[in-house]
């Protein structure tokens, strides 16, 4: 199964001039967990629900903090023909829950952790137990980060 088959085509975008509150409002209104920041057709960042929580938790004023201050600039992306398993591994390795999907340099969709979970849940129902190549290193790295207090 390829990412194009399960990604959300409707993408929520904003510019770097918005505020943290405007990004949060967009996410709430569209019931999504991220806002992709674009400049023309180029992706320049992404703001996720985790970015909002981290910023507010550290004292940022949602009405004053700009998207540019909060967004992740090194955006990990995939292409529509990427296998879902490879996309899931990419998301796990980089600790991300939202993966922008890009074709010919343009944002065409987004794959969420929820999308991937739905596929694996359907496989479980159909086959009884999907074969999943579990990467214990990802789990070990996550546990080490939590123990060290790195909750990002």
Automatic annotation (TrEMBL):
| Keywords associated with the record | CBS domain
| SUPFAM superfamilies the record matches | CBS-domain pair
Per its UniProt entry, which superkingdom is the organism in?
Answer: Bacteria
Q: Which residues form the CBS domain?
A: 6-64, 71-127
Coiled-coil segments, which residues? none
Q: What is this protein called?
A: CBS domain-containing protein
| UniProt xrefs under InterPro entries | CBS_dom, CBS_dom_sf, Diverse_CBS-Domain
